[in-house]
Design brief:
The structure holds two protein chains of two kinds. Chain A is mainly beta. Chain A has strands at about 5, 10-15, 20, 25, 30-40, 45-50, 60, 65-70, 75-80, 90-95, 105, 110-115. In chain A, strand 5 and strand 6 (about 45-50) form a beta hairpin. Chain A is globular and about 45 Å long. In chain B, strands 2, 4, 5, 6, 9, 10 and 11 form a seven-stranded mixed sheet that branches. A four-stranded antiparallel sheet of chain B has the order 1-3-8-7, with no helix packed on it. In chain B, strand 5 and strand 6 (about 55) form a beta hairpin. The chains are: A mainly beta, B mainly beta.
Chain lengths: ~120, ~120
Amino acid sequence: AQKITQTQPGMFVQEKEAVTLDCTYDTSDQSYGLFWYKQPSSGEMIFLIYQGSYDEQNATEGRYSLNFQKARKSANLVISASQLGDSAMYFCAMRDLNSSYKLIFGSGTRLLVRP
Amino acid sequence: DAGVTQSPTHLIKTRGQQVTLRCSPISGHKSVSWYQQVLGQGPQFIFQYYEKEERGRGNFPDRFSARQFPNYSSELNVNALLLGDSALYLCASSLGGRGTSTEAFFGQGTRLTVV
């Protein structure tokens, strides 16, 4: 069975500094995708970044990068130059690309950016 | 272009009642998925529809049902409401199809409170 583990319930970071949010996953599938979503207090899940299991390079999207270590089954999100608007819940999720349509989510990390 | 729209945004129901939640996907998207997010947890997969057919079902009781219409909009129905059904219900749309890495785009959700 697939499982996502986020071990940091809450994190603080100073404005303009970088922060790493941890995510480990468990799957027996060979072809899978890893996603990070941001959920502000409004409730909407905002897609941030995607990494495929066969992608050799780590994904980057603006200030977001994904530190993908396949052997360790980890997919940590790095946010550079934190901004006050980055304060939100962050969810790591995965999907088996061959046989499943559903996203499996972790329990999330609440990030608070301090001015 | 409009994003994923859900209605209503908030809803209060009494135990035992029935509720219908609605979702309109992004134009051109043929896949709609429903997720339940209980306070303090990550979203849990309920249903996925693609081209008006059910493609996946999560571990939810038969009180939960859904359908997708020819215009790809979708409804989630929950019968015999329980207090434990209180949650944020999220709809996600995607292009769909297996083997794709396309991300899912979420609406702002419907916050259901059962009293």
